[in-house]
Amino acid sequence: MSVVYLNGQFMPASEAKISPMDRGFLFGDGIYEVIPSYGGRCVGFTSHIKRLQQGLAALEIHCGLTEQDWQELVQQLMMQNGAGNLGIYLHVSRGTDTKRAHAYPKDISPTIFAYCFEIAEEPDANIDTAPRYKVITAPDLRWQRCHIKSTALLGNVMHHQQAAALGLNECILFDEHDFLTEGSSTNVFIVKDSVVVTPPLSHKILPGITRQLLLSILRQHSTLKVEERPVSKNEVLAADEVWLTSSSKEVAAVIEVNGHAIGNAKPGAVWLQAQQLFGQYKYNY
Ligand code: PDD
């Protein structure tokens, strides 16, 4: 039975209850994080908490927990759930009101929820055994505040479903000028002539922690050229390699976009180097 945290208490998941008047339920009015941990070691913990605090500040939700408080909460949660390979889900909604009204209510306390779920072993840098992702492309029909990690994920869910309905892994998205934004639940990188390229941060993409770690690691520990700049759809289709990054996938190789093979339809040599370095240095940041 998994143990979860809800509003100051640890309890069995079956005992965790919130009101249907919670604004997270009614409006998707909240912020979340997913942090990977292996054998009790979190990847990018401080960066995840910083992004959580920034999201809460953008929504003017005052939850009062410091990084130290989150650290203690997450440690407890991991211990109570066996400290194996766990994804840690943190969720803060604006809280429970007495009625449904759009304006932020005064004087309600946020609902703070955390639970963890088992995840696979740490991804391996191995061309033969690495997962191979097949994706489609679509116009990005989400909102204009994608830098906020909001629990209101219906836009992302609908895009993800476009791929899932075809038996594919991810839907990668393009803005109104056919420039790459991100995937429905991942950031996207391309490689062309050994140059690694990813779109710059903006309101159009989530500032992914894996993206940030990977950029730092490649810049500090490889001789690869790394660029943050707009990436056109034609560049994606003509890329030597395409990668997806996220907390659960780390660096994942795409072998097919819209039914067309990328590179030689196998994880590429630059991917191998990137995932190897990521595995080696991910706890140093
Ligand atoms: N998804 N872009 C979007 C839209 C995402 O939802 C995610 C993560 C990422 C990658 O961010 P990070 O590297 O910080 O995990 C990019 C999470 C894991 C999810 O919603 O489950």
Secondary-structure topology with pairs:
Blueprint: E1 3-6, E2 9-12, H1 23-27, E3 30-38, E4 41-42, H2 45-58, H3 67-80, E5 85-93, E6 111-118, E7 132-139, H4 154-164, E8 170-174, E9 180-183, E10 187-192, E11 195-198, H5 209-221, E12 225-228, H6 233-237, E13 241-246, E14 250-257, E15 260-261, H7 269-281
Parallel strand pairs: 7-8, 7-14, 11-12
Antiparallel strand pairs: 1-2, 1-6, 3-4, 3-5, 5-6, 8-9, 10-11, 10-13, 13-14, 14-15
Helix pairs in contact: 5-7
This protein binds N-(5'-phosphopyridoxyl)-D-alanine (PDD).
What attributes characterize this protein structure?
285 residues; binds N-(5'-phosphopyridoxyl)-D-alanine; 26% helix; 6-stranded antiparallel β-sheet; D-amino Acid Aminotransferase, Chain A, domain 2; 2 domains; D-amino Acid Aminotransferase, Chain A, domain 1; alpha+beta; 9-stranded mixed β-sheet
Low-confidence stretches: none
Number of helices: 7
Instruction: Write down the oligomeric state.
Output: single chain
The major β-sheet equals: 9 strands, mixed
End-to-end CA span? 33 Å
In the CATH classification, which architecture of the largest domain applies? Alpha-Beta Barrel
What is the domain total for the residues?
A: 2
Number of strands: 15
| CATH homologous superfamily (4th level) name of the largest domain | D-amino Acid Aminotransferase, subunit A, domain 2
Provide a compact summary of the structure.
The protein is of the alpha+beta class and 285 residues long.
